Amino acid sequence: MNESAPSDKLPSRGSLTRRRLLAASAGAALAVPLGGTAWAQASITDVDVAIVGGGAAGIAAARKIAESGRSYVLLEAGPKLGGRARTDTAFGQVFDLGAGSFGSGGGLAAAADAGKLPTTALPSGRRLFIDGREARAGRYDAFTAALGRARRDILAAADGGKDPAASTMLTAPGEWSATVAALIGPLSCGRALAELSSLDLSLRHVPPDDTTSPIGVGAVLESLGAWLSTQTHAQVTLITNAGRMHTLSLAGQRSQIRARAVILAVPAAVVAAGAIRFNPPLPPRLAGAFRAVPSGALEQVAFQLPGNPLQLEADENVLAKVSGDTAPALLRGRVNGSDLHVLTFGGAAAREIGEKGEAAARRLARSFLDTAFGHAHGEGVTEVACSRWTSDPLIRGAIAAALPGQGAQRRLFAEPVQSRILLAGEYTATNDWGTLNGAWDSGEIAAEKALRLVSAGPA
Ligand SMILES: Cc1cc2nc3c(=O)[nH]c(=O)nc-3n(C[C@H](O)[C@H](O)[C@H](O)COP(=O)(O)OP(=O)(O)OC[C@H]3O[C@@H](n4cnc5c(N)ncnc54)[C@H](O)[C@@H]3O)c2cc1C
Q1: CA angle 406, 411, 412 (to 5 degrees)
Q2: Could you say which of 154, 193, 197, 366 would form a disulfide bridge with 167 (CB–CB 3.0 to 4.6 Å)?
């Protein structure tokens, strides 16, 4: 093993572009064959930093390590980069089933800008519909007041040093209480307020998502990672503390990666489910913290409505007053000015879509449109495309949100594990958890810590 020797090549199953090859050869360490010369045979590759998981956090981390000139590899279990930001092209149109927008003030927007990737501003605010009609101005005001009151009530729990279920904090019933509860709970965090920590919610400060991209947010992330030294179809199954380095084993491969620092950027639910084993095991306190932030469910349903029957501007967001048995949803209408619309469901409805797929998605979308817009608009929904994040074994849910009483657990994710494993991902952010920007920043922070570790350690 020679940790500092220059490499002739770093293994990658994807095609290496010229820039990627340059990045790989500039920083990569030597691949050491064990009893054979081909990568297909058992081998060990040494790198300074191994990054596990190629979503926003993993891509941001890998870019920082690449810029430093240190050797690294980005290991992604799926076929491509992007994680929970995935651009689809069903119906011959570009749209996202997953994160479809982000805040313009964060690191992701700056990286997209520097990479000359196209972004567009989203309309501010959202329209409010009640029983088939748009709300009048007075009812907008009443809704906004109810939302503000609910947020203040939740903040009060944190100020009081307690962490009850967020539902117990909403004390003022009114015509908007069910809609406000759906917006803060299932539609934002994927779970009902009764299953959410008020402390965790009160610490969450997310600037509005005001930016999207005409090529799709998933495609933006893929482009930002396109030049990185990446191995796709590389599912890490075991991380072993091997003294001065950690060894990573991959599913279906005899080859191993040895790294002086590991950035673990997979969803919290993947770790909580034991899909990656650790030797020695994770400390019980940290394992408990992973169980304290289970994933909520968010799923999206895309469909076309030609001729703009809902009379929406491009990319308008619509919220409808919760009514009867109809599952609440958020609508992004006329994506990029097209005929395509995307509904986001949360909580129980999202879990049903995750389990049953398109039949459930179509039924829920039709019911929502009939209730929100009236005039049997639901009949216009014929074909649908939907996400199934909850049943994807590499994701296992939407975003990690703390259970009541467990809001303080999230800060444990800032500590290094076994001195060399750094955690990154949306769930590690304390203020903007559950967002692309939170994930991106967490990747950059983990990369800075990894570089400090690698610089300080023995050569
Ligand atoms: C329906 C939906 C809508 C959303 N909308 C928005 C939005 O509009 N704006 C916003 O800011 N956020 C949104 N989010 C949240 C946002 O998508 C996430 O916060 C963000 O994408 C998380 O990034 P990440 O890097 O932490 O994790 P991920 O993107 O999940 O990346 C983790 C990666 O790890 C890989 N992986 C898993 N196991 C292994 C393994 N064993 N070995 C190697 N790789 C592995 C996975 O395949 C995945 O690619 C939405 C989420 C959902 C589900």
Answers
A1: 90
A2: 193
